Amino acid sequence: MNRNIVYFAIMAALLIFVGFYQSWNVSLTILNLCLISAIMSLGVNIQWGYAGLFNVGIMGFAALGGLAAVLISVPPVPEAWAVGGMGLLTAAIMGGASVLGAILVYFKMPKGRLRNILVLVICLGGYFLTRKVFGPAGFAIEKVEPAKTGYLGGLGLPILLAWPVGGLLAGGAAWIVGKITLGLRSDYLAIATLGISEIIVAILKHEDWMTRGVKNVNGIPRPVPYEVDLQNSDWFSGWAMSVGGDVTTLSSVVVKLSYAGLFLIVLVAVMYLSEKALKSPWGRMMRAIRDNEVSAAAMGKNITARHLQVFILGSVVVGIAGAMLTTLDGQLTPSAYQPLRFTFLIWVMVIVGGSGNNWGSILGGFLIWFFWIEAETLGRSLMEILTSGLDPTSGLRTHLLNSADHMRLATMGIILLVVMRFSPRGLIPEK
Amino acid sequence: MELLNAFTLLSNFVLVPAIAYGSQLALGALGITLVFGILRFSNFAHGDTMAFGTMVVILFTWMFQSMGISLGPLPTALLALPIGMVFCAAFVLLSDRVVYKFYRAKKAAPVVYLIASVGVMFVMNGVVRLIIGPDDQRFADGERFIIKARTFKQMTGLNEGLSIKVSQGLTVVTAIIVVAVLFWFLNRTRTGKSMRAYSDNEDLALLSGINPEKVVAVTWILAAFLATIAGTLYGLDKSYKPFTYFQLLLPIFAAAIVGGLGSPLGAITGGFVVAFSEIMITYPYKKFIAYLGPKDWAPEGLLQLLSTDYKFAVSFVILVVVLLIKPTGLFGGTQS
Fold first, then answer.
1. Which residues from chain B sit within 8 angstroms of residue A199, using beta carbons?
2. Residues of A in contact with B246 (CB under 8 A)
3. Are A237 and A356 part of one and the same domain?
4. Is A124 in the same domain as A241?
5. Three-state secondary structure call for residue B71
């Protein structure tokens, strides 16, 4: 345990160091994303560390969380609802009815060619009919002031509500994927999650009536006050006077600190529940299944059902973290969801931190995010030094300077490989 | 006449592109399936292996172009292809030596290999972006078309033209040659037979004196060759962008799984199944139906089953259907 305290102390020291030498704003920005990363890695650790499930679709579940932030908190656009709301609802009901019908026929009718044909007809017919209604409705919505809105908007509820809803959306997607692929080879889960995450992000990018697509949804309501409001309020500027700091800087520090406080509450809650679960009989059963499926099955454990359960739980946590991230950004940027940043970086966090150990995941989330951010500036200055011997106008030098960012990817890969090989149990090993 | 027009239209926009795309996917899926058959894991670095090999080809193509060497009507990239294959194989063998060999000695679980391949993917991705950058690169030269749509119209007097790009013809010819050589290698040579034996039953193969390290090395070389060829053909046909190659992972995996992981014949079939479904489902049939219907009649709407934005969904749905109905794939691949 002593070593672990040292690790976290080093991490805190690094953040404080950045605070003194760069600025407290930078330090707090990093801290906030560290907290979110830690929650995401906790979610992945539930899947991988507890149960040995390899999820390559973290990006998709995080994006669903981001979608929830928009759907819950943004005020609705009445004109859009007026022109397309009915059509969309009808389409949703028709789509749902045909899926339900197909499922009913599949399970209620006797096996045979007739059943298969009927299911196919219901699916295809439902698809075409739904699209017939859905297409014009979506088109009409996108025509409503495309530069400003052009989408349905959300429900206008408090943004904090979006966090659990993001978890639910992610959990629902996980249920579908898990139902199909769990129980088959472990590679299939990996490939299927890779696929579903690409599709989710494609939907976010192209369904303009829902997310405005690549036009992004800006100005998502905040759970904390705006800097400008703080600066204009008397009590705040009075307080800033008495502390003796710059009002602008202080206001943004206070806003970031309040975000950090909210995130910390979620992190502590998720951490508490995960640790409780891990130390309960359920956690021991999960680890027993992970370590030897055959003997666990022989003890009467339903492996596939338990895997499905733990896969959904982990995805819920990732979805919550995804909603938090969009809340922090204040905007939904579908094109920002890149698999290397949202899926594989989280994996590096979990494995470097220590698979199976929740404290390890938190440490990994903090450490890797810190270096991911700092490597950007570090890498550039390193390149400056390395190429200082070259002629400043030479093409090679500019090329190398421009591509310093890509070094981060290679470095992350090397960190992952080195840790897997020389310290496969990570910084804080599983007990 | 109308029937011929309709058929030409379909050939031009569906048949020809799908055959070319299918060949590219098949070559990619063959690499995945070979690695799976011998090393028993899904290689997530395969897309980036394709990107790496193609990058070397592009760099040498540019060098040849600046030296004034060309193949006349054929793209110069063909000359650079063997060099790219060698470089790619060297890089992949190096990654095996440095990364995978250790886990082989430990007899690690497949999922550990899978994560290791993610690490390799990161490194390759970083190296590729470092050298050539993340942007689109064009390296096709020589003639562009075998048949131009205009010439075809003049020749046949039809309303619709059929154009076949050089890159498409080249893809199909190369794919046929590569597949023929590969099957000859697997079925007729000693090394190929030992590979198949190793894939069928590892212990029995080891008992009969097959050197596993040699089998593994040959597999990696073949996978790297196939990846470079597939990547170069794809790049010539469409364009080269490192991220696109990462995204190709999904259709390629879908192709390999549809055919049955570990079955070379299945990988080829799967590649065409995925390519044809993807293009047929995202093609708007409006004009095609208009030719077949009565005169001066056109259906409203594009008659497109799915927008091209969601072409990944097609691979995914095929994958899901196969996993639900026949998880071992059409040709029942290697089990483990």
1. 310, 312-313, 316
2. 339
3. yes
4. no
5. strand
Residues A135 and A175 in one domain: no
The sign of the CA dihedral A185, A186, A187, A191 is positive
> Is A411 within 8 Å of chain B by CB?
yes
> How many C-alpha atoms does B304 have within 13 Å on its Cβ side?
15
pLDDT tier, B336 (very low <50, low <70, confident <90, very high otherwise): very low
- The pLDDT tens digits of the residues spanning B110-162 come to 888 988 998 999 899 989 988 888 888 888 888 888 888 888 888 888 888 88
For residues A58 and A84, membership in a common domain is answered with: no
What are the helix (H) ranges across chain B?
2-10, 16-39, 46-67, 77-95, 101-106, 110-132, 149-156, 166-188, 190-200, 202-207, 212-237, 242-247, 249-259, 264-282, 286-292, 311-325
Digit-coded pLDDT (tens) for B4-32: 888 888 888 899 999 999 999 999 999 99
Is residue A180 assigned to a domain? yes
Residues of chain B in contact with residue A351, where contact means CB-CB under 8 angstroms, are 115
Is A268 a member of any domain?
yes
Q: Which CATH class is domain B2-325?
A: mainly alpha
Distance CA A202, CA A225 (A): 33
Asked if residue A306 and residue A277 are part of one domain, the reply reads yes
Verify that A144 and A92 share a domain, yes or no.
yes
Q: What digits encode the pLDDT tens for the residues A187-210? A: 888 888 988 898 899 999 988 888
Rounded to whole angstroms, how far apart are CA atoms B296 and B165?
A: 32
Q: What is the pLDDT of residue A8?
A: 92
* Contact: A416, B118; criterion CB under 8 Å: yes
Indicate the domain borders of chain B: 2-325
Token pair of A288, please? 């027993």
For residue A429, tell me if it sits in a domain: no
Beta-carbon contacts of B313 under 8 Å, excluding residues fewer than 6 positions away, are: A199, A202, B306
Tokens 């992970």 label which residue?
A: A290
> For all residues of chain B together, what is the average pLDDT?
89
Which residues, including other chains, have CB under 8 Å from residue A380's CB and lie 6 or more apart?
A401, A404, A405
Rg over alpha carbons for chain B, rounded to the nearest Å, is 21
- A186 and B CB contact within 8 Å: yes
Residues in A touching B116 (Cβ below 8 Å): 417, 420
Coil vs helix vs strand at B74: strand
Could you list the residue range(s) of the whole structural domain that residue A334 is in? Answer: 2-76+153-422
Judge whether A408 is closer than 8 Å to chain B, CB to CB: yes
The model's pTM: 0.89
The 10s digit of each residue's pLDDT in A365-374 is 999 999 888 8
Q: Tens of pLDDT along A84-100?
A: 888 888 999 999 999 99
In a domain, A430, yes or no: no
Burial of B103 (C-beta count, 10 Å sphere; 0-12/13-18/19+): buried
